[in-house]
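Budget justification, computational time. The allocation requested in the original proposal was used primarily to generate structure tokens for proteins on the priority list. As evidence of use, we reproduce two of the resulting records. The first is shown immediately below.
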Amino acid sequence: MEQNQAFESENFEQEPRVNENHWVGFKDGAIAGFPIVAGYFPVAMAFGLLSKNAGVSFIDCCLFSIMVFAGASQFMALDLIKAGISMGNIILAAFLLNLRHLMMSASLSVKLRAIKKHWLIFIAFGVTDETFSVTSLSNKKLTVPFLISLHSTSYLSWVFGSAAGYIVGEILPKTVQNSLSVGLYAMFAGLLVPEIKKSSPVLFLSIISGFLYAVLSYTKLLSASWNLIIAIIVSAVVGTIFIKDEVQKEGE
């Protein structure tokens, strides 16, 4: 009897303990990605519609979203294509606009130390402003199934939304076409507001970054991409130096 009890006790202790605060599966990633999907699909439809109006073929429109997967860069590229800008300059402009992804990846790397390196290339491709917001604002454990599911649902909604916009976008009423891009801002608000309610440091950093970006945009000393990069860097430094202790106390 004692041996059986000891055996059962030993097996019980070997079972992994699951923390309810941890995201652990594909379902959790899909649920967390639903607000992103709701925001991505209409904006991607707007991109598809604009691609068709700019004379871009359906295949090229889809390849844009499949291979680039960066909304701001894709919209900018369409404007540059219509303006007759060379391919090299378009690539350079997209690179500068997406420099913020380097900082996002560096920030996420702290949370992804336990993840095997061969998964990182797939995870890195799915890092966008929105997926970064979901993962960085959470104090939950980031697992491979969760991240792959979160990024995949976001990615597929953007690709299929682009194709849908190209095919059926012109059928929609003009008022609907003009309002498609509003979905992106609504999605950001939906991601940010709940975090602001839970954390005053998030509110503080949001105000700082928004104010700084507005000032830089008003002065027009730099391009829009550099304005965003500077706002991100400054707010990240402020958060690291001044409110790190406060965030730790709120998480206890």
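The second record produced under the same allocation is shown here.
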Amino acid sequence: MVALGSLPLGGGIPRIAVVLTDSFAPSSVLEAHRHGVALAEMRVDLFRRRDAASIAATLSSLGTLPRIGTVRLRAEGGAWTGSEDERLELFQTILPHVDAVDIELQAHETLARLRPLVTARGATLIVSHHAYAATPSLAELQRLVAEAESAGADIVKIATMIPTGAPEALRALNDLTRLLVLHPRSNLIVIGMGPAGLISRVAFPRLGSLVTFASYGPEGSTAPGQMPWETMVGLFRVLSPEVT
């Protein structure tokens, strides 16, 4: 079973992550943790201050809450506009303070350089593919997962837009998620973005998707279709009372 630090993932237990910049109130996030939030994704590309001391202080304020560090390019739906050398340096700054890092599959060179650094720290490597326009076919989704695993991913994250009136897109992601049940060696996070993909954020964790993402307070949503963490926890208390 794959883990983020001391937090095991899988085994039919839905895990909710809140997505944070550096403007959160630590006491409020830790309160969310006590009420069912399992981990935090730190969107460092959205941080106002990215010097090493500020990053260390921000991340350490979360105590033992498991953390994913992400530096997403503007072209990948994020805010990072620096060079790839600078992004790699930022990942190196983050690594001592997180349990996992998330990098896009298409960042081939940076991914190859980052992978041994993550391994050396004993952290978890999440390799992502985000598609904001539409959802690829099931065959293409399977190819992307295989490519990410070949690139060294411990966890593969697939997040694609579900257009309104396109149930075949949701079916493709559903079929991909079921592969985790059929092939338990694959560690997947699968998310359908947009209003038509909302159901995936609740249903797919019950099918085997390892993590679902929620928005936090004034930080707001960082991806189309993210629900507030309070709403997400409430839904899982109804649908999965044995694990919340």
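A brief technical remark on that second record: The chain has one domain: 13-238.
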